[in-house]
Design goal:
The chain is an all-alpha fold. It folds into two domains: about 60 residues; about 140 residues. It is flat. About 35% of the residues are buried.
């Protein structure tokens, strides 16, 4: 196992921060028509999310240096999975209210593409130089985890990146059904990659 049990106090703070994050997420949703309240709720939620990620990485990593790449991995996986699901839910909204502005889905699809591109960049850095505890250069591409590494690269990084860009371009033409369908496939690929990446780190200490 590449992770350790988090100290009880730190784990308790992480759980509390996660609850706070959920609360501010609800507040953000119900104050969508109030820009000031929405901005405050969003900022507070971001602070809570940052604490959750930091506490999780510090608590589970074997050493403090290992916590840095682990925190980046947790944040990126969370942003991709959460962003993809949010875009998918928003796409369904257009199916029942077709005359609303296309800007939210366009922005969210583009943001999802940017997040996946960041994940792809992290994958390249970790593949070339290592990142997890005991992970060496090219370990995820030619080592014992090569199959998982190549599947991660092709199926859950490059493929959903293309789909997110296609959904972004499709939303610009107001073809919301097509954009939603593309996001369905992208979310499935992202979810599979998230599970695979988390499992590989926990079992072998390899970041992909």
């Amino acid at each position: 196992m590449a992770i350790v049990a988090a100290p009880v106090g730190l784990d308790g703070m992480r759980r509390a921060a996660l609850a706070v994050f959920a609360v501010f997420g609800v507040v953000y949703a119900v104050t969508v028509g109030r820009p000031t309240a929405r901005a405050l709720a969003g900022a507070a939620g971001l602070v809570a999310f940052t604490f959750v990620v930091g506490a999780a990485a510090l608590g589970w990593a074997q050493t403090p240096p290992d916590a840095v790449p682990l925190a980046l991995q947790i944040a990126a996986l969370s942003a991709a999975a959460g962003g993809g699901l949010a875009a998918l839910v928003l796409g369904h909204w257009y199916l029942v209210t077709p005359k609303i502005s296309t800007r939210p889905l366009i922005v969210l699809s583009l943001a999802l593409a940017v997040v996946i591109f960041v994940q792809l960049s992290l994958f390249a850095v970790w593949a070339l130089f290592g990142g997890g505890p005991g992970q060496v250069a090219f370990d995820s591409l030619v080592g014992s985890a090569a199959l998982f590494g190549w599947l991660r690269l092709a199926v859950s990084l490059v493929f959903p990146l293309v789909l997110a860009v296609m959904a972004w371009r499709t939303a610009q033409t107001r073809s919301m059904e097509s954009a939603t369908g593309l996001l369905y496939i992208a979310v499935a690929a992202i979810a599979a990659g998230t599970i695979g990446a988390a499992t590989l780190y926990v079992t072998r200490g390899i970041l992909i």
